[in-house]
Design a protein that fits this description.
The chain is an alpha+beta fold and 740 residues long. It is built from 16 helices and 38 strands. The chain is globular. Keywords: DNA-binding, Transcription, Transcription regulation.
Length: 740
């Protein structure tokens, strides 16, 4: 690739499969794509910002922002940029497509529009890669590499004339591509067979075999190769480091470990066990780098740190100036007496784990409502029993809240209950400092099963219609007011993912083991005297609640010297209670103190917008997360000027507003009591509006008038919660609004 004189910046990353992802930001210039030495390879360019004209032979293509240009390396292409611009260039080895793409690709240079069909999805996916190239890792790119052939080929065929696909062969190629996609979606089914796929596409088994013959393959051979490739990628993924080889092979449809091992060795020349220990050099990944790409320099694949809980005093971290470079590790952080705290945040708490940018963590979190049904949610689970232990004069975790230890204000118990959540952490992020942003990506979340053998394999949660709920002083039937606890069973199997109510009971005054009377549900962990309640098993019959697992509480430590109550959220994060913070979502949090100090808790099986009665379905959860540091000065467009929590999903940005976003700073020495007195939906809505307006003006370059109009006609505002002392509202900005 030759360039004229210009000014700009280049960053690149080479993936496990040898794909080069290169971003280039520059002033006006012309480029020639000349890959003579890689003549069998392919390339694509997405225009992220600016204008572009591509000339290849007699073809001249006008490219809009978001559009993608695709070509073969043996064809010279001239790229003209008349003004400042930013692009993503992907160089694709021919071998990468060999296994997956059996159809003939269109000849010449093709334009994939970003406003319709598969082109829209492909454009969004590659834009995300281009925006985060400096934070890439092999595991983050793996889903992109798996789906890229499908989306690319489908987008090319949607926009290509049948002549370029071989005349009448174009229709067969499109059908075969749909067959490939169908197989990919059902690889984990061990019973997948020729008849099923033929029936799904309305063709005969004989014709389906003929389609495979046109690309020199057979149905059975193709399925086996795709399953082997999925197993190979899982074997080196930190996300699956806890799984045995047998678990991985069974997950992808193999039903015999011996035949799998033989097939794996035949395909890759190494046994699965040896491959997991030391993959061949061809599978190694390279850390992101700045400057011109250097194709011959390759780093070894990152190793997984298998220590169950790294020593928090171990300071052997990567250079803070280059977060994300070095080994990517997978940590396990269990919920134990040593790794949790109850009801408070503080910048002065010693971290229980230190991670580098890009590290994965399997983290356990517990619910502070487990005592609502001791038999189902505490009994038999040794660690939860330890954490909840409370006998007369003997409480394992005495401080429960951010209030006084002597219970001098209300006499409820140590900590006074001003703060109720059991938090796991804090986790220190190497190199994080004020002005940076920490991203927490939620990859998997699963309910913790009961430790009671009587309920083996089953999970449970609690919902409390409590005195702090929005409904409490607005009830119709007697007795009023009242507090009601509903116990749910949470099912999260492959074929069923719902919660259903088992029973409910009215909360009655409880005397805790230290002799204190609790007239209301006002102190965390008070054991419920089963003899004092009446269980109603005829509740919500025939109702199934979709499971939407998420964390209610995710926070970095605020810049505040004292203990911080976990109930009111703020611009440091905290008790956000937005159900969109689940698998596939990320939250971005501004760093307030050195190393960030990340804490998670308040796990929910499901919740509606508003958390109206006071709680969600509170249920212990475990999660696989990835923690990524975005230092100041390297933050991508959507993170500019971000001083509040931002949720991002595949399709949306969720802007979080609070009635009093800066209450710790603005309400003085009594902030943690004053914040409860002044919450309103109007104030939360106004904060969400102001942040959303700023987000559109800053990240999308809209004028104020444009932003206000768009907020009214294209953005959905909602009530996040009216339960946490500092009420919340949110604005949902759909990414599809900007597809063109």
């Amino acid at each position: 690739m030759d360039t004229d004189a210009s000014f700009g910046e280049m960053a690149s990353y080479r993936s496990d499969n040898g794909l080069d992802f290169i971003t280039l930001s520059s002033t006006r210039q012309s480029l020639t794509i000349d890959m003579v030495e890689r003549a069998d390879d392919l390339w694509l360019v997405e225009l992220l910002e600016g204008d572009l004209t591509v000339t290849a032979g007699p073809d001249v293509l006008r490219v809009r922002e978001g559009d993608i240009v695709f070509g073969h390396a043996d064809m010279l292409a001239r790229l003209e940029f008349p003004r400042d611009h930013r692009i993503l260039l992907v160089q694709i080895p021919a071998a990468y497509f060999t296994q997956r793409v059996r159809n003939h690709l269109p000849a010449g240079v093709s334009l994939i529009a970003s406003d319709t069909g598969s082109g829209r999805i492909l454009s969004g996916m590659l834009r995300a890669v281009g925006d985060t190239v400096n934070d890439l890792s092999g595991d983050r790119l793996r889903p992109v590499e798996l789906s890229l052939p499908d989306f690319l080929l489908t987008a090319l065929m949607e926009g290509a004339p049948s002549k370029s696909l071989g005349g009448s062969a174009g229709a067969r190629a499109m059908l075969l591509e749909r067959v490939f996609q169908s197989i990919e979606m059902h690889l984990s089914d061990p019973h997948l067979n020729l008849e099923q796929v033929a029936t799904r596409h309305g063709i005969s088994m004989r014709y389906l075999q003929k389609l495979f013959e046109t690309v020199g393959d057979s149905f059975g051979h193709y399925v086996k190769l795709r399953r082997l490739e999925r197993c190979r990628m899982d074997l080196i993924s930190p996300l699956h480091a806890q799984k045995t080889i047998s678990e991985i092979l069974f997950q992808w449809g193999f039903n015999d470990s011996a035949s799998f091992s033989r097939a794996f060795r035949e395909q890759y020349g190494i046994s699965p066990r040896d491959y997991r220990k030391a993959p061949p050099a061809a599978a190694s990944a390279e850390a992101p780098r700045r400057g011109s790409p250097v194709p011959e320099q390759r780093n070894d694949r990152s190793e997984i740190d298998d220590e169950p809980l790294p020593d928090p005093s171990d300071e052997e971290d990567a250079d803070p100036a280059t977060p994300g470079i070095g080994q990517i590790r997978h940590h396990f952080l269990p919920a134990t007496v040593e790794t949790v705290r109850w009801g408070h945040l503080s910048r002065h708490i010693k971290p229980v784990l230190r991670v580098r940018s890009g590290d994965y963590v399997t983290i356990e979190t517990l619910t502070h409502h487990a005592a609502d049904d001791h038999e189902r949610m505490i009994e038999g689970d040794v660690e939860i029993e330890r954490i909840y232990h409370w006998a007369p004069g003997d409480k394992t975790i005495d401080r429960r809240g951010a209030g006084p230890m002597d219970a001098s204000t209300l006499g409820r118990g140590a900590g006074e209950g001003f703060g109720v959540h059991i938090l796991t952490g804090p986790i220190a992020i190497a190199g994080a400092k004020p002005g940076d942003i920490v991203e927490v990506r939620f990859l998997e979340i699963s309910a913790r099963p009961s430790g009671n053998a009587k309920y083996a394999g089953r999970s449970f949660g609690s919902n409390v219609a409590a005195y702090w709920g929005f409904h409490y002083n607005d009830m119709l039937t007697e007795p009023k007011p009242r507090e009601v606890v509903t116990i749910f069973e949470v099912e999260t199997g492959r074929d069923r993912s719902c919660a259903h109510a088992l029973y409910n009971y009215r909360y009655t005054p409880q005397v805790d083991p230290d002799g204190v009377l609790h007239e209301r549900y006002d102190y965390p962990g008070v054991p419920i005297d089963q003899a004092s309640i009446i269980k109603n098993f005829e509740v919500l019959q025939g109702v199934e609640i979709p499971v939407r697992p998420h964390f209610g509480f995710v926070a970095l430590a605020p810049a505040y010297d004292g203990l911080v109550d976990t109930v009111p959220p703020g611009d440091f994060g905290g008790n956000i209670d937005n159900w969109r913070l689940g698998p596939g979502g990320s939250i971005f949090l501004p760093v307030n103190v050195a190393e960030g100090l990340l804490s998670l808790g308040d796990p929910h099986a499901s919740q509606g917008d508003s958390e109206l009665c006071g709680t969600a379905i509170e249920c212990a959860m475990s999660s696989v997360i990835q923690i990524v540091l975005h230092p100041r000065g390297t933050q991508r467009n959507t993170l500019r000027d971000l001083d509040y929590p931002l949720i991002e999903t595949r399709d949306e940005w969720v802007i979080l507003g609070f009635a009093q976003p800066h209450y710790l700073r603005e309400l003085g020495s009594k902030a943690q009591s004053e914040v409860y007195k002044n919450s309103s939906i109007e104030a939360a809505m106004r904060d969400a509006f102001r942040k959303a307006r700023r987000f559109l003006m800053t990240t999308r370059s809209l004028s104020e008038d444009e932003a206000i109009s768009l907020l009214s006609v294209g953005v959905d505002f909602g009530i996040t919660q009216v339960a946490n002392g500092n009420w919340g509202a949110h604005a949902i900005i759909r990414k599809a609004l900007f597809s063109s």
